[in-house]
Write a structure and sequence with these properties.
By secondary structure, the protein is mainly alpha-helical. It is built from 9 helices and 5 strands. GO terms for molecular function: GTP binding; hydrolase activity.
């Protein structure tokens, strides 16, 4: 799992030597859940099944649609007594930390609520795109992720690893999951949907999505109020009005992508 363009499909291609579509922009290539089953005799006697999920900031589907899709798949497999050995959450190390205060951070929180604290130890936080940033700057970003944005998960035994676009680093990332393959845990979303019979928007992940919508609506109302105030002014500050209108339009786009 992870944002659009964070390297999920690339990881699967490298690890499996199977050619799935890879995006080279922030345009989503994965809009459905993809499943690839493969054998790694050098790593495990068991087959490994990769499940590639669309990012919550998908360009073709809203966050709500993505959450529905993931919840339906997780519920169906849970009812068949199939549990995940682990989850790889991908993040571009080349991203500046500042966007974590916006959509990326909100999507991370939704991911945390989907997993639940009891499953954090089965999460590997995987950084990608190390070839796009210097080692020192990348290490600075990595430290801030570990000690600030990922702290909740790291405190509960999540691991962080670097994917360097080669099979060796892919195998190093998979190794901890294979070692603990028999210690699988139910995700919170599975418990809430199947065991507790919650509706999707009643789940912790659903509530996180609702909180995101509320925040966007409030921001939109604030900008609209500033536009109205600007229209009442006698001075014709077209530059300020253009900035506010662009901000309002961007919030509309984010709301459409969310619900």
């Amino acid at each position: 799992m992870g944002p659009t363009g964070s390297g999920k499909s690339t990881f699967i291609n490298v690890a499996t030597e199977y050619n799935t579509e890879v995006g080279h922009s922030l345009e989503s290539c994965t809009s459905e859940i993809g499943i690839i089953k493969i054998s790694y005799p050098e790593l495990s006697d068991c087959d490994i099944v990769f499940v590639d999920t669309p990012g919550f900031d998908n360009t073709h589907k809203s966050d709500l649609d993505i959450l529905k899709m993931i919840s339906e798949w997780l519920s169906a497999t849970y009812k068949k007594k199939i549990l995940l050995s682990g989850i790889l959450y991908f993040h571009r190390i080349s991203d500046n930390i500042s966007p974590m205060a916006g959509t990326t951070l909100k999507n991370l929180r939704m991911f945390e609520e989907l997993c639940g604290k009891n499953a954090f130890h089965n999460v590997i936080l995987t950084t990608t795109m190390w070839d796009e940033v210097g080692e020192d700057l990348g290490k600075q970003y990595e430290d801030e992720l570990i000690h600030k944005y990922w702290k909740n998960m790291m405190d509960r035994k999540s691991k962080t690893m670097r994917f360097k676009n080669d099979r060796h680093s892919a195998f190093l990332i998979l190794a901890p999951l294979l070692e603990s393959a028999n210690k699988r845990h139910t995700l919170l979303l599975q418990q809430e949907m199947v065991d507790m019979h919650y509706q999707l928007l009643e789940t912790s992940a659903g509530q996180a999505l609702f909180t995101k919508v509320e925040a966007l609506v409030k921001q939109k109302q604030d900008v609209l109020g500033r536009i109205r105030d600007e229209m009442k002014r006698t001075s014709d500050d077209q530059e300020t009005m253009n900035v506010l209108r662009a901000e309002f339009q961007q919030l509309n786009i984010e709301l459409d992508r969310t619900v």
